[in-house]
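Box 3.1 A note on notation
Throughout this textbook, protein chains are presented in two layers. The first layer is the amino acid sequence; the second is a token string describing backbone geometry. Keep the layers aligned when reading.
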Amino acid sequence: MKIEGLKIYRSNYLFILPICLLAIVLFSFIPYSKTLHTNPEAHLSMTRFEVSGIKEVVADMKRKDFPADFIATLSEQQQLKTQQLNALEENNIQATLEADYRSTKIDLELLQQGKISGLGFDYLNLKLAELDFFRKNPDIEYIHASYFSKLPTSYYFTRLFGFTPIITLLLLITVILAFYLTMEHRDKTSAFLATLPQKTTTTAFNKITAAYLWVLASWTTIAVILTLLTAPRYGFGSWKFPFFYLNYQKEVQSITTGEYTFKLGVSLVVLTLFLVTVIYLISSLTKSTIATLALSLAFILPAMMPQVLAVIPATFMAYLPFGYLNLPELLFSKSEFGDFQPTWLQAIIYLISFSGICLFILVGKLQYDTKKTIFAFKKK
């Protein structure tokens, strides 16, 4: 293990990993930071415009003798929008949430009755669930660009892979690992290492552990730096802050910041294990950096072409790793592979199982190579 640590320390190119990962993630901070500069006056002006618009619509409907019940509903909507405007002007967030909730509920009812169009059911259902939660839980601060100009650290972590696709980061990690795990083959020292008085399984364990810890250390470094960038200015936020989304059955679900952050950490640990074991197995089979890199990328690149893979039957896709790699998005039930819609837990189980199979084959291959090398030395 100590030898592998020294290899990492002396291999300058390995430090490209944390530097590039950090650069890519920090680039995502640009669109994130732009969301922090919401102009409260602009939101007030928009709300005033909505109130004025509804007032004109109600007056026009009264002149044209629209049904009284419909006019009454829009008049109530006008009153709620006026209450929301007054609450915004007074910076009364709870009153704003209450008025917005009741107004959104009316919009959803009118949409269901076919009396209005333009607003989507999914959007209104999600908005209604979110507003209902926060109006009933005033102890949890409502973070929304319309009302606040700050986004805490914990909130940023949940948005991180929306700004920076996880597949992009996995490609970078794959390139670095392909070079590290084929180091002995490039240096022509693999045959010598096979003759050392150390078990093959120990050698493989040390190699995998070193690569695994190095990637995890890179992830941890990024998390610490992002925390230092956001927490002092915007606070860390609450672990209880919920995010609402629609599952594959179009049912409203929620996940707290704490649960998401924990599952995100598990996702990164499992994805790292998957990459290390797969790439190490490929390197032991090809004994070539270029071939290892090419075959390893073949496991990742298809995940960037969901439109192409969407034509593959879901029953067949279930056996391929491509549809399981975007774990952060699967937490929100987002799959772009057509009818193939795995859950986050299914993806975790698949990737761990796949890694275990690769590790089993790897140990067998390394033992075979060791016996072959020792036999060749004795023959000489």
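Residues 111 and 118 are 9 Å apart (CA to CA). The radius of gyration is 27 Å.
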